[in-house]
Amino acid sequence: MSPDTPKMSQSTRDILLKVRKMIPPMLEKFHKGQMGRVAVIGGSEDYTGAPYFSAMASARLGCDMSHVICEPQAAQVIKTYSPNLMVHPLMRQSTHASTSDSASSIAHAVIEMLPRLHVLVIGPGLGRDKLMQDTCANVIEAARERGMPFVLDADGLNLAQTKPELVQGYKECILTPNVVEFARLCKSKGLDTEGMQDGRAAEELSRAFGGVTVVKKGREDWISNGERTFVSDVEGGLKRSGGQGDTLTGTLATFLGWRKAYLEGLWEQDGSLEGVELLALAAFGGSAITRECSRLAFKKRGRSLQASDLTEEVHVAFRNLFEDGPKL
């Protein structure tokens, strides 16, 4: 095995073969937007990097259109990071809101965008401001009505913790908690998972939320929908800098966009994968890409690795796992 080959178990290789089926080919007949329209909702005044990393990872992996919906002061900053992202200053923090601003009125402008989108990522850089959180709660309700898939991460997970009815039983929802966030979610559901094997713990939390997909991040990523559980063990890097989870949410969102294209039969394929299984496979694909990005970036940067270094490795990681790498 080449030293540049990512290490993984045979079971991971087998699952990646299935993930590969949902990756669309590059065909002349496709038009702009068919391969994914993703929006990241977050970006408060203090946190502008997280939504950028998520949206750029989504774009670098191959979604056609990548949006950021954020607070106006965050929008001014994020627009300077890259001209490739579409940035919409629609969110409001309590400290900058006018007397006429309410969660429902602010959410209305975001909800009007939903017909133009395929997937939502809610949480990167969102913060705990009540108006921002309540606005997202309104958006989640509207997304559920439309049957849209969405990913909750970071402060977006606070909504699942404090308002579990927003996601309860919604199979198109994916939660991506780290160790601390996972413990909080378990506590909110009255689950005692201390000492429990990681895969079983992820399964129990998924069941408690009625079958949402849970990605328990850690040394290995455990992915469960309460009925089936995968472990993603592609070798990662050894530096745990902030912001690496944003690469996961962005790449996962692109896989969800590809899932929609697969289910709509936009290219010739065997159609052997169904919607529920494809959710877990999308999460697995996002995990594998992120872990390989981490490995590649750590190899170059070592202790100095930052989240932006993962962004630069997204395409290489994709090629290593799904195109130019070893036969899975």
Q: Beta-strand percentage?
A: 5-15%
Instruction: From the alpha carbons, calculate the radius of gyration and give it in angstroms.
Output: 18 Å
Shape: globular
Report, as a whole number of angstroms, the end-to-end distance: 13 Å
CATH second-level architecture: 3-Layer(aba) Sandwich
Q: How many individual helices?
A: 12
List the helices and strands and how they pair.
Elements (H helix, E strand, L loop, with lengths): L9 H12 L15 E5 L7 H13 L3 E5 L2 H10 L4 E3 L14 H9 L7 E4 L7 H17 L3 E3 L4 H6 L10 E3 L3 H10 L9 H11 L4 E4 L4 E4 L4 E4 L11 H20 L11 H27 L5 H5 L2 H9 L6
Parallel strand pairs: 1-2, 1-4, 2-3, 4-5, 5-6, 6-7
Antiparallel strand pairs: 7-8, 8-9
Characteristics:
328 residues; alpha/beta; UDP-N-acetylmuramoyl-L-alanine:D-glutamate ligase; nine-stranded mixed beta sheet; 12 helices; 45% helix
Describe this structure as you would to a colleague.
- The chain is α/β, with parallel strands linked by helices and 328 residues long.
- The chain has one domain: Ribokinase (UDP-N-acetylmuramoyl-L-alanine:D-glutamate ligase).
- The protein has 12 helices and 9 strands.
- The protein has a 9-stranded mixed beta sheet with strand order 3-2-1-4-5-6-7-8-9, sandwiched between helices.
- β2, α3 and β3 form a beta-alpha-beta unit.
- Its EC number is 4.2.1.93.
- One of its GO terms (cellular component) is cytoplasm.
- This is ATP-dependent (S)-NAD(P)H-hydrate dehydratase.
- Its main location: cytoplasm.
- Keywords: ATP-binding, Cytoplasm, Kinase, Lyase, NAD, NADP, Nucleotide-binding, Phosphoprotein, Transferase.
